[in-house]
Amino acid sequence: MNLKEQVEKFRKSFTRQGFDKDDIDIALDLFAALASLDQALFPGNIADIQLCLVSSKKKFYAQYCKPVKGRQKEHYTIFVPGQHNLWKEDSKIVFIQEKGGRVTVCPAEKHRKLTKKEFAYTTAVHEVRHRLQFQYGKRLKKFNAWTWKRARHPLLRKLGKFVYHLNKEQRRLMIRDGLRKQFARIHTNSKEFDSIFIEYLVLHRLPSIHSRSDLLKLMKVGPRSVI
Known about the structure:
The strands form two sheets. A three-stranded mixed β-sheet has the order 1-3-2. The chain has a two-stranded antiparallel ribbon with strand order 4-5. The model has no long low-confidence stretch (mean pLDDT 84). The protein contains nine helices and five strands, in the order ααβββαββαααααα. By secondary structure, it is mainly alpha-helical.
């Protein structure tokens, strides 16, 4: 069964079970994007994708789960219920590099509407970057609260500064809204910093991504990369 057939099989099953159409659309766009990206980056070692039929208590759209010996294989989980509400609540930022090198920042909705497919696509990028973190280990040069300052490209430094302050504000708001501190830390730790960074970088570069090789290059960007 190819990817398109798998998606349609799940769509019919979830529709029969009464799931919200918008939740189904986003979840299956995410499923297709994850499957495609994972296969491109790990052609001989594809991870399973599990579709969870309950919403995430931690407000995750999806989750990369590393292997645990004797307990679980490496896999991704997509939480089907609630995807549409999370999409509506999510606020993406677009980084625009103007002529002369100046970089400006604006909410995505003021620049262009972030579609559900783009939302699913960049979420897939986020989760696959987590798998790269695990699979490559120290070979993958990652962004964190310190390394972004040494980035070669001004766009990467601008983006790093934004993600740094975004993480701090997200943690504060999560704790204020009653999320336990340990969950707030999970959302804003150094691995999340790195994945959020790549997610927003790909979002910024979407109009100029014309091939799979363009995307895969961005997926492996580090602080010293030339973009």
